[in-house]
Amino acid sequence: MRNIYLFANGFGETIRTLIIAYLILTLVFTVYSIMRMYYIEHKSNNVKAGRVRVKELQVNGRFVQIPVHSMEEMAEDKHKRDVKLMFFPADKPKNKKFVMVLPGGGYAHLCTKQEGYPVAAALNERGINAFVLEYSTGRDCEPFSPMTDLGTALRLIRDNADKYNVEIDGYAIMGFSAGGNLAGIFASHKKGYSDYQLPKPGAIILGYPWTCVNDWLHHPYWNIWIGLLGIWLSNRGSFYMFGLRQIRKGRTMLDVQKYISDDYPPTFMYSGSWDVLVPASRHADVFDAALNAHGVNHIYEKYFGVPHGIGLGIHTKAEGWLDRAVEFWDQHK
């Protein structure tokens, strides 16, 4: 019996064994979750449909790619050269409203092929005009430069509304992951639409948004590896935008909950319960609580077992969210 007793080899050795077992099991779970995420991402993001739509518009001479900043601004600041706006006009638009689509990528890069083109193509199928913004990321990212890119792009659309046959009033902003962070901040008064003399969005639509700071004390993790992954992702976005010296302050300034007010735009949001990169319990759930606290009109859909980066959510429990989001937007235009 002594050989099977839990503390047969001493208390310290038992604790050491339990810690090692915990680290190994949680690591295996994390690796499995990430592999599962990439597998489901591949199935749920209709990348092929996005490519087909781009080619279709190009053949018909209707695909428009626009530099957001002026030649003078790009000559002065090289970081602005890669900021582009792509216009996806619907074949039979039901009105002049449009959606601005913001792909994710943690402010380190952009997932345009997964969360940009396919989403714009799906919106076109529903008779909705769409723009996809490739905002500044990585080493081209500066303090709040993605917000500046978005504000400049929307003013460009407003000033050329007749050219694109759209109208600025009632527009929607749709953001995924870090794009959801960008949309969430821009929908506020500070660092948002009012700074660019733009009307308030008719609605914001967020897919698995990164909304708050991954802090061990405020948002404890049972899985140390997922916690470290979340902290790394949050710090990475803050590092690119604000630099190493301001990384802690930067995390606070990217905390979307701090920007919400009672007149925040109507919000539709969805997230998955098996998101190891941007856990819903640390991001979307917290954002949902803040919206409730301010009485903001919103819908929050949370899907069991759904991972990060699913975009349109094809072949997942989230499939159909886009139709419900568009319906929500229609009700608040």
Structural class: alpha/beta
Biggest β-sheet strands, sense, barrel? 8 strands, mixed
Taking strands numbered 1, 2, ... along the chain, how are they ordered across the largest sheet?
1-2-4-3-5-6-7-8
Mean pLDDT over the residues: 90
State the end-to-end CA separation.
72 Å
Q: Helix content range of the residues, please?
A: 40-55%
Features:
alpha/beta, 8-stranded mixed beta sheet
Briefly summarize what is shown.
This protein is of the alpha/beta class and 333 residues long. The protein is 42% helix and 13% strand. The protein has helices at 11-44, 47-59, 71-76, 112-115, 117-125, 145-159, 161-164, 178-186, 224-242, 247-253, 284-293, 321-331; strands at residues 64-67, 84-88, 98-102, 129-134, 172-176, 203-207, 267-272, 298-303.
